[in-house]
Amino acid sequence: MALLKANKDLISAGLKEFNVLLNQQVFNDPLISEEDMVIVVEDWMNFYVNYYRQQVTGDPQERDKALQELRQELNTLINPFLAKYRDFLKSRELPSHPPPSS
Question: Which GO MF term does the entry hold, naming one (predicted)?
């Protein structure tokens, strides 16, 4: 079953908005753990899916399919963002130094 044009347009708009949200993030102190960032980003994704849940059209099966596709597409945006955050955290780690010899 192909998605309705209106739902495709909503998914496209949601992806653009979500991408803007991700690109606006500035990694700064205080840092949060990678695990906490995953929770934050998943919360954002759930917010977007719930927001668009009210706007998708069609019968229940069509709406479910559109929301599933939206979630999958948002995940494709999340993964590179989390990789970028992981790299940022690694760059902020202090190199370990052996204790001074006596």
Answer: hemoglobin binding
